[in-house]
Amino acid sequence: MSHLKNTNPLLVIIIGLYISLVSLWILIHFFNINIPIELFANTYWILAFIGAIAGLWSARLWGYFGSSIGKSISFFSLGLLLQVFGQLTYSFYIYVLHADTPYPSIGDLGFFGSVLLYIYGIWIIADTVGLRRAFRKMDLMHKFQVILVPLVIAILTLAFFLWGKHIALSSPLTSFLDFGYPIGQATYVTIAILAYMLSKKYLGGAMKNSILITVFALFVQYVADAMFLYQNNNGTWVGGGFNDLLYLTAYFLLAYAFVTFSQVYDRVKSQ
User: Fold this and answer.
1) Cis peptide before 104, with omega less than 30 degrees from 0?
2) Global pTM?
3) What average pLDDT does this structure show over 118-127?
4) pLDDT score for 105
5) DSSP state, 204?
């Protein structure tokens, strides 16, 4: 019973909502039940919104912008809010205006903006656990490897998802986003992996699990964005499909990470 009393209520809400939305997605796609796909497509942003609330709550414990961890969580939370903006904007275009997949649109201010905030958020964590100090101590070969990793990820992503696609000078914004999304995502995924590797020594390794969940969340977000880019370029994207399920999972993992960051704060404070 004491374990149940200590359970974070936000965590219960986040897990319960994720299970409910995944169950709804399964019912829509695998059972002969007359549930409109729009019900899932137009509601799963709620998890991102609640995740942002959980993040801001956790950031408050760490002092918001008064500490590195608080600042990082704050930027991730703002990134989730930008995802909510993008989701709602796309839903408005598709289900209210009955437009084709609105890419690019004003919704990409949210989606691409979140990529930039994620990069900054994970960079703060990486710098806090000693990435910059570790980089200074590396020899030239190791420094080259660190720089090469994000470059290779970005090139492979661009080659796979944009192979044969021409740069449209008549649509510079589309071309910019086609290349900007995978490069930005490759950047935050790489920094996240490096941050996890260094986090084993930070605060006695207390941050390791929280950062690992964050790394996984960012990787799932990377896959979801890349899949959207690929499906949109090939005219196969459908609202409420597997791509949206991946976005939902990325939101859940990031929200879960926020709760674990608050638990780390409680453990550190009690020591």
Assistant:
1) yes
2) 0.86
3) 90
4) 87
5) G
